[in-house]
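User: Here's a protein and a ligand (uridine-5'-diphosphate-xylopyranose). What would the complex look like?
Assistant: Let me lay out the input and then the predicted complex.
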Amino acid sequence: MHIAVVGSGYVGLVAGACFADLGHQVILVDNDQVKLAALKAGDVPIHEKFLPELLKRHRERNLTFSDNLNQAVRASKAIFIAVGTPPTEQGEADLSYVESVARSVSGAINGYKVVVEKSTVPVYTSDWVRKIILRNAAAPDSFDVASNPEFLREGTAVTDFLYPDRIVVGADSERCATVLREIYAPMTDGSYYQRKDAIPAPDRAQIPPPLIVTSAKSAELIKHASNAFLAMKISFINAVASICESVGANVQQVCQGIGTDSRIGPRFLNPGIGYGGSCFPKDLMAFRAVARECGYEFRLLDEVMRINEDQRQRFLRKVRTALWTLRGKRLGVLGLAFKGGTDDIRESPAILLVQSLLQEGCQIAAYDPAATARAREVLGPSTEFVSDPYEAARDSDALLILTEWEEFAALDLDRIFKQLKYPIVIDGRNLYDPEAMAARGFTYYSVGRPAGTPAVPAAASTPPARKLKKS
Ligand code: UDX
Ligand code: UDX
């Protein structure tokens, strides 16, 4: 099928590349000329597993790039809108980009089209998109508006797209649902997965994935409700972690105990420094705003957000507990991205923590496997960016783990120990075992678990003899 995807950001680019891999003819439209030139030249603007392979496989064959929305609409049967929906100051989703795309689509309709919302949008957006297209003189039976939310996680977006738990199609007419069913047919009939060159399946893949057809409004709500529920799960376990800290329990054991209840499930139950990213913070605010507009005060969401912010403050208190005063302390920081496996720093709790520590007068030596360039733009020269974890640790008063990158869970701990000025590790992602860390001589703080303290104390207040000699 001929498909246009408008907006080649994280979502649009991944969706476009995956539709091409399913065998469709895709035009990716963007109004950012620099981005377009880079994409045409073969650059991969985001760090996303399997995306370079897919772009290489399909670029200038069944995946082309264009700034001409009009032409792309004329050439396509389905038009996916994947432009940004950033939050306004009031926390609502700013839908002006969506509206402007809808206006342009209207003028280019030359036969039956399905206009699909792929961006996360509040309920009723499909109604509005329809009204805008009609207002701009398109015939009522020349198009339908559908909602087809994405559930992609950054870092695993390609496999999340091709091996989803479910595909949600919000369509208010059978004609429209049929077009979307056809687009996803290579997945739902299993033929994609039999191909030798298919992107490899992740663990737990459900093959073939179910396709759920709902009304457009229900699909819009499914997206907001899913993200809100996942964020709530994270805040819930972060709150439980705080209680664990107060009573000396171990949140990991608690997680295992509750996560094995199949009604709860173990995923998205990892405590840490709070959720970040381009979706959860924005979508929770937008969902709360939508609910308020509909006359419902969704106070539960306020609490989810409050716990999330509190989680960062609690981490800062841990740094103070470990080091007493902060001014002039040198801290090694591992991880700046909002989570492992991505170079995205939007709403990254790691960046927010580094900014707070800089304000307190700390010196920061930071390392991230992928997000350094983006972080440099935000943090500027106040932060020293280093090229590996051991350099971050070198002569630092403590090492902070802020992002759950796999490589941070496999550090050469003896080397880290030797590099640090004091062997103190404050782990915001629970990557190590407190007792094992203590046995290696570290004073180790994590989230929701008792601190690990070496038998012969090497804590901040009592630097080890070896280190004293050195200084
Ligand atoms: C998307 C969704 O839009 C958002 O609702 C969802 O919650 C997360 O993912 P994302 O793909 O991350 O956002 O957005 P971004 O990386 O900002 O990309 C949007 C793209 O649309 C940019 O490349 C921008 O240049 C382009 N754009 C924007 C247009 O082509 N036309 C416009 O009018 C506006
Ligand atoms: C999220 C949703 O998972 C995805 O379905 C939606 O389409 C977009 O938003 P993403 O923002 O890419 O995806 O990342 P996700 O893996 O959900 O993590 C979000 C944040 O929560 C990260 O900061 C992560 O570190 C944090 N997190 C996640 C936890 O703190 N604990 C967990 O158990 C899981």
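Summary: The chain has three domains: 2-214, 223-307, 311-445.
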